[in-house]
Amino acid sequence: MELILDTHSVHYDQSKGEMIATSVDGTKSNKASENQFFNSGHMDKVVLQSQRMLQNTKNYAVGFLEDNKLFVSPVTGIISLQPSFQHYDKADKKVKETNQESNDSILSGTEDDEPQAQQVTVKFARRENERMKRARERSYNYFTAKSAEEAWYTTKFHDKNSRLAEVERNKLSGSSQEDAVNTLCLSISQYLDTLAPVMKVDESVQLPDLPSNVMSLNIIKTKSLAEQVEIVIKDVRIITVKQLASLLCVHKDDTAKLLRSLQQVSVLVQGNWVVRSDLVYPKGSVSSHSGVPNEIMARARDYILYLFTVNEYVSRKDITEKVKLPPDELKSILTSIARFRVHKGWELLLPPDVSFMESFHETVERQKMWWDVKLKQLLQSFKSDLTASPTRQRKSSNSSTSSRPRKNSRSRVDSISGSDKEDSPVVKSSPKKRERKRDLSLSEVDSNVPSYKLSNK
Question: Whole-model pTM?
Answer without folding.
Answer: 0.43
